[in-house]
Every structure is written in structure tokens, then in C-alpha cells.
């Protein structure tokens, strides 16, 4: 996503001197493609309705509030997305579990010098603090280096021996701060159909040194965040700038079987139709044109979808639910439940819930969002209605009028409508698109160097025994595709 500049570009922290180490260039060969394995934090255990709203509330305090974000969205791993990956960092490589987030602009992990970093996680994964002194391929990034200058501009008082640092303060008062390092990041290369091998790439990322507020909590904590935003500081942008990857990625998140895919590169199957991204936005925004319920277009104010100050509809896989302005929310709900005028609703932790026997898909209408370039987003009843307990269903749509001032007029479509679809982000052509897809099946990708097309399958992050405890997973594929198609 586009980088958002704060009022002051950075603040230097008092840090103990760290040993500067020589970086070993461990970039993969041109045209390589690779794999991260990723899992959904709620799969394998049934979250309460309160868990879902709490997740979005924490996330929206980050993306909807006025905050200091030097290089984009950073935050608590539990509030930045629903999917996380196992990656390797350093030489020798160590395992780190990082949140996968389309709303963040860098990769960062908690550092050995971190204050109040969580020491354990309720997710059952083993947390690791990154120590640049233990990696022969790690080095600190000086505030004089190009990465820092391009991110912050000229920094007063900067000297070659001072590190490049970042600090983020959130609306709830929590904060994170640290410094940048460059080191080897390891993932798995797709070498042929269904086959991979490990490779490394040199990446600049954040080393979190100080945490405050909720950022120090161990509840569902992870080691950091793997951001897939549009900023030049994001991992995908760095890989593209080095010629390692194309600036295109896609995800397919399976909420049925707990599998899926997250791919960087050229997906040749399935085919995806696209719509333009709204330019110069900090998120992935698109232009919505209409909402259809059960085959009928809702009658809504003509200016509701104007880009103006609203700047389109946010597509965000890190948000659990979907949020609409109040006028659209009320019209949508009236149309969905028009066949059931006597249905009795009750409030359960912020959700409207009701009792219903029989098939949800047979009893309620499909919702279709219309976007520029005639792109449609189909949302089925089993997507927007979820069973809280036997024959008790709750509605996933949320009234934006009940949100913060900045969010009440915003369309924000999250995991509720994006799951079980292949969603493509083509940052080279500034378009986004999607298609309904079985995310537990295979896809086809093209190698940028050889032109070969490989079949890649969805996998599980853990063995079947551990998966019973930790839930399902999705497969994140990093495809370095250089050729222009």
C-alpha cells in the first residue's frame, strides 16, 4: 500500500551499541519461486462472536485512527490479520511465526533487546527473539543508507554509525519501536510440480526493541508481521526491486477445510477478472458501483459510492467481518430478511443473532457487490451467516454507523466475503480481482525465467497430530517471476 508519512519522520531511541555485521548476499537465482506455509489462527478452535468483534476493533484502532505510522501499518500480531506463516531468518536460520497482513508495509519481528515482548503464545507456537549478532548474514541499517533515506527523508542529526529506527503509536495508547536490519529470509522454492527446495533472499526488516500496552500481551502472540502493502519498504516491493519477484500476489483462504494458498507471482489458473485500484490510497481500495440482493439492486443514495473523501471500498483480508455505512447496512439487512418479517433477533456481544432450522443457503438470498469494470463479488448465505450454536445463526454484516467517526461512512470488506475466493493483487498494473475457487485444490503458476507452468497444491503447516491442537493452515507461495507476460 502507499506509504503514509507522519508529522515527524522518526525518533531516535537510546539503544545499546550492537555489533555491525557484514551482510552476505544470499539472493535466490533469477526466476526462482518459493513457498511459505501459513495457518489461520481461529481454525481448529471455534471462536466466540466476541473474539471476532474484538479482533476487528483492535485492528480498526490501527487503520482508522489518527496514528504515527512512519512506514505504514504495524501492530499487535493478534490484531493485524487472521493468517500467519513460518519463515526462516538469519544464518544459521531460525524459525519465526509472523502474521500475514495485506494492511502492513514491512516485515518485522521482536528483537532480543525488546522490552515487554511476549515470551509465550496461547496459539501453541514457540516464540523466538531475533538477535542480529547471532546471524553471520545480519547487519544493522544506518540512517544514512538508501532504505532509511527513501523511507524518512533526511534525518536531522543522522550519522553513519546511528541506526535507522521506527516508532508507531496507536489510538489505544500502545506502541512499538525498534530499528531496521538486513538479513537472510528463508522460504521454499517451487522447483517442479508439487516439489520445493529452500532458498534465501536478503531483506531489510524491523527489529522490535520496545513494546507497550497490548503489544506486550502473550494472548495469541506471534513473533511479528509479514506485510504485503504497496510501500517500497514492504517485502514484496523489496523482492521486486531486486529482480527476485514480480509485484503481484494472490491469496485463497479456505474456511471450510482449513487450507489455502498465498502466492506472489503470475497465477495462470484460475483466471481472474480485475477492477482498478483507487490511486494514492494507504489501503487496497476499489470503486463499488451497486449492491444486489436476491437478484434486485438496492436503492441507495447516488453519492454513497463516490470516491471523494471516502476513496472507495477497502479490501482487507486482515479484517474478520465486513462493514457498511448505516444507510447501506439497513437496506441490505431489510432485503436479506424480507421473507422473514416475524424473525426474532437478539443481541449477542454486538451481533444480531436468530434461531433458524433448515438450510441457510436455501432460506436466504445471495448478495452481490458490483465494482468498476463489471467485476462482481458473490457472497453466499453461508458466508455472511455463521452458526454460533445449534440452529442459532449470527449476522456477519456490521453497521458502520456504530463504528468510529472515521469508519462510519466506509465500506470495508474483510475475510467474511474474501474467503473461498482467489483474490489477486496486481500492483504492477494497479488492479485487484477475484474469483470463486476451491482453496483446498491446486493452482497453476508460471516461472518467470523458464516459462514453465507448475502445479502447486494447498498443504497443512503442521502434522495431522499437531493440527488437531493448532488448527488448519494455508500455503504461502513466493514466486519470483521476472518475465513480462
TrEMBL record:
> Listed GO molecular functions?
aspartic-type endopeptidase activity
Q: Where is the active site?
A: 101, 316
Is this entry keyworded Glycoprotein? yes
Q: Where is the signal peptide?
A: 1-32
Q: Which superkingdom does the taxonomy of this entry point to?
A: Eukaryota
Choose any GO biological process term that the UniProt entry carries and state it.
Answer: proteolysis
Q: Does the keyword Hydrolase apply?
A: yes
Q: Which Gene3D superfamilies match?
A: Acid Proteases
Peptidase A1 domain location: 83-435
**Keywords, in A-Z order:** Aspartyl protease, Glycoprotein, Hydrolase, Protease, Signal
PANTHER family xref list = ASPARTYL PROTEASES (PTHR13683), EUKARYOTIC ASPARTYL PROTEASE FAMILY PROTEIN (PTHR13683:SF768)
What does the sequence similarity comment in the record state about its family?
Answer: Belongs to the peptidase A1 family.
By what name is this protein known? (wild Malaysian banana) hypothetical protein
Q: Organism, per UniProt?
A: Musa acuminata subsp. malaccensis (Wild banana)
